[in-house]
């Protein structure tokens, strides 16, 4: 461990911390050493992934551990369906592996993660620990694909957990917001490699809201981005094809115009204009929506799911019941129109299937994720405060890695297994070695 004088900040720049030390262990034994030494000194410990949470989930004034040197695939065990046919594999991956590294590694093995978010810089353990998800009415979030994990607890013990071994620790740690221990490796269920046929086109919010249920089922992975102050949306529909389907990737020019230029460089310039002249935001959004032209392409799943995001923003995302989502979006539109609040960033609308993960935002209910964003140079406070009121009125549950104001007492009423989670944490970390400012707010 090295003593640190360098401040740490998250990707969005809204969380800044001063860790007392930093450590980049290369083995599980080294992780154990760092944790036990810190616990003996009475220091706190936090593991950071890629620092891409908007909440202070990875912030610490104690020792900041990074598993950037604990990466790659450890082992693969083929799995079979009830008829005995191979239907994928359980793949054990070192926890610090970034998602953008994992996609190509799995592809070379004929495998893929069943679903991904729209971005791939995160570490596997960081993404799973906050409940990262993608979109798809039949697609569960990342924690629900975890079938086993190895955890270093506060007393230095190394626990191997699954449904069959330390089942309660497994349930808590597969969405554990870094509060129950340090995950050193994870076993995730992967499916045979697949290709996605992507279709993107402009549409209207009114049309989407008229049959949101139908829209959510219109492709394997359907989502849309709504440009506030307009009725314009950009639809993205991804359809799964076999792994040997012919690829028709975006040409370099279309890729530049789409992801690199519009999503990043030009969009950043538009956002800076909106920050200087907020009253121009509705015009800017109309222009941005028109600039997102239709395109279709077919590529490896991990290349289609994720895109680069270089324009910094702040984000709040809630999971609401699918049946309530059209009302929530209508209320959001009315609130923005009435309040005079402006944002150049689109609202992202996605879906996920119910799962059984204790702390999951989709625990036992199909959900629609509604995410509001604000450019990092513009004030997000009023937008997020008013949006959160709407989400809460619809029984929304906050994403653990995105901004929200919920506290332990609020969450204990909405997260069904909150008390089970807390009792596992009390048992594994009675002295709160893994606590930080975020866990002090969201956990007792
Ligand atoms: C540009 C951008 C795009 C995003 N897109 C999506 C999206 O499409 N879908 C979505 O759901 N979310 C999305 N997010 C949110 C993001 O996926 C989560 O916040 C995720 O947790 C970030 O992963 P990370 O590796 O940066 O974790 P960090 O933010 O570094 O850490 C998150 C939590 O995990 C804990 N942790 C990290 N490693 C370990 C470990 N080894 N053991 C135990 N705990 C650990 C940390 O202590 C912390 O509590 C996005 C965020 C950004 C900035």
Automatic annotation (TrEMBL):
Residue ranges with Polar residues bias: 1-12
Q: Name one GO cellular component term.
A: membrane
Region spans: Disordered: 1-25
Presence of the UniProt keyword Oxidoreductase in the record: yes
Q: Can you give the residue ranges of the FAD-binding PCMH-type domain?
A: 15-193
UniProtKB keywords = Oxidoreductase
Any idea which GO molecular function terms this record carries? D-arabinono-1,4-lactone oxidase activity; FAD binding; L-gulono-1,4-lactone dehydrogenase activity
Q: Name one Pfam family in it.
A: ALO
Under the heading NCBIfam families, the entry gives: bact_FAD_ox
Checking PANTHER family in the record gives: D-ARABINONO-1,4-LACTONE OXIDASE (PTHR43762:SF1), L-GULONOLACTONE OXIDASE (PTHR43762)
- Kindly provide the name given to this protein in its UniProt entry: FAD-linked oxidoreductase
Query: Which source organism does the UniProt entry give?
Result: Dietzia psychralcaliphila
